[in-house]
Structure prediction request, 41 residues.
Amino acid sequence: MIYFLIIFLVSFVIIFCLALCKAAAREDEFYNRLHNKEKNN
Prediction:
């Protein structure tokens, strides 16, 4: 169970990093969305 959780987290992090790399061209838009979410909250 613990090993499954670790593998899941590692895979999620890798996928997340790959997604960020692919969206490097839209990096500013990503940060703007994040900032807007923080402002709304």
